[in-house]
Amino acid sequence: MKKMNFNHIFILFISIVILSGCSSSTLIHSEPPGATIYIDGEEVGETPYRYSDEDIFFTKHDVKLEKEGYQDFYSSFRRDEEINIPIAIGGFFVWPIWLWVFDYDYSRTYVLKPLENGDVYKKENTSSKAKRLREMKELFDEGAITREEYEKEKEKILNEKE
Hints:
The protein is an alpha+beta fold. It has 4 helices and 9 strands, in the order H-E-E-E-E-E-E-E-H-E-E-H-H. The protein is about 35% helix and about 25% strand. The protein has a 4-stranded antiparallel sheet with strand order 3-2-5-6, with no helix packed on it.
């Protein structure tokens, strides 16, 4: 039987480190659970939700949570929260894997704040205003209305009582 020499052990170690270290994940919870979650503007599911990627360290992701009866919650997280020890050790031998030396925290919990009675109307009205402003901007960009018409309508929408 042939013995493994140092080179074989080294190559095996580096291979394991590289294959296991690029991916990182975090478990996203909300209180209460069942909130719709958006990561970087894309709906990805409901909480609890496991987010995984192979992004390099310091990559930032924006998070939005929505749940009926609760205020929308906005936050972000970056891949710089936990050090990946095997990658840190392997980085001394193969420098590119230093790009994955940090991971996300294993878990995070966001607490949603309930809406008060007046907030429901305010939230609906605000989103309605934003929608109408986007529609007016689109009409202006397409040349369907003049700048003066756009500015006049924009001012009228923004000055509406909430």
